[in-house]
Amino acid sequence: MSALSVASRQRQSAPNVSFEFFPPKSDKMEAKLWESVARLTPMAPNFVSVTYGAGGSTRDRTQATVAKIAQDTPLSAAAHLTCVSATKEEVLQVATEFWNAGVRHLVALRGDPPAGMGEKFEQHPGGFRDSVDLVQGIRDYDIAPGARFEISVSCYPEKHPDSRGWDQDIAFLKAKQDAGADRAITQFFFEPDVYLSFLERARSGGVTMPIVPGIMLQPNFKGLCRMAKVVEASIPGWLHELYDGTEDDPETRDLITANVAVELCHKLADQGVEDFHFYTLNKAGLALSTCRMLGLKPKAQVA
Ligand code: FAD
């Protein structure tokens, strides 16, 4: 990219960003998470979210992490919540605990079956049937006087493995919106057209809520390929080429990862996309450099 095009990029308004973290499993990971949160805070994200382990396995850690973000930082904290392995009452109790801890935003998901993706999802006896039922359940539940969670949901521009076809997927996403979802966040993807075609389908199907692209910042290419296989997201041939031979070179992989993310965001921004959700994997450096290259400045530096 020439100096001229860098300058013209910088004249475009900087995007809105959000960051996704996972709850740490060890003291070392915990220290890294809080260092990442501190380094990313000046980017003034719309919100930061914390994932909920499969089957609610990280319930306590998710809760402790989002509560600390809500209470000890200026950030807006969002807690992921799933329907798996819990009754409706248990799920709503967790939502209430999030609310009481100062969390005002949920990412409401069906979740994967306890045996893992690929297995058939079975509704827990007494549990929510699916993500639409969960969103409706949260909206119908009287958590506290005047309480209203902001609710984000997922969507899948390359289809989820459980997809019953595009028409049903879009109708299902519309049902999440009708049940009270405020925003959808996409599964990761690498080609802008994947997102743009999905957006067109969703808009034609009556989905009017924001659909925020989820941008993956995974520099471990082998790990990315494993993840993509499970969730049936495609990894383009050119990405294989870029990482080829970098197996023992994490520094180069980081640079590739940030550049790929920036280029994808720029292409989407050229089509009018203004919000990006970054899957940070709890690493600040990649998210920070990506944001800087998209024109975001630390808040203190914004005059
Ligand atoms: P849904 O979107 O509810 O459904 C999955 C697919 O099945 C869709 O294609 C949908 O159209 C179809 N489908 C389901 N029910 C119906 C129906 N009744 N009629 C027609 N079609 C139907 N997992 C975690 O365990 N913890 C997390 O914190 C977490 N965070 C995530 C965040 C994001 C942004 C994304 C994209 C995914 C996340 N996941 C998380 C993964 C997610 O839990 C899995 O992909 C899970 O298999 C599906 O849950 P969902 O709410 O995304 O599914």
Inertia-based shape: globular
Q: How many domains make up the 3D coordinates?
A: 1
What oligomeric state is this? single chain
Q: What is the helical fraction, as a range of percent?
A: 40-55%
List keywords for this structure.
303 residues, alpha/beta, 8 strands, globular, binds flavin-adenine dinucleotide, TIM Barrel, 11 helices, eight-stranded parallel β-barrel
Task: Give a quick summary of the entry.
Helix content is 45%, strand content 15%. It is of the alpha/beta class and 303 residues long. It binds flavin-adenine dinucleotide.
Description:
The protein has helices at residues 3-11, 27-40, 59-72, 88-100, 131-140, 166-179, 192-204, 221-231, 237-243, 250-270, 284-293; strands at 16-21, 47-50, 77-82, 105-109, 150-155, 183-188, 211-216, 275-279. The chain has 303 residues and is an alpha/beta fold. It has a single domain (3-296), classed as TIM Barrel, CATH 3.20.20.220. An 8-stranded parallel β-barrel has the order 1-2-3-4-5-6-7-8, surrounded by 5 helices. Helix 3 (59-72) links the parallel strand 2 and strand 3 (77-82). The chain is globular, with a radius of gyration of 19 Å. It starts with a helix and ends in a 10-residue tail after the last helix. The structure holds flavin-adenine dinucleotide. Residues 51-52, 54, 80, 82, 107, 109-112, 117, 130-131, 154, 156, 160, 162-164, 168-169, 172, 185, 187, 214 line the site of flavin-adenine dinucleotide.
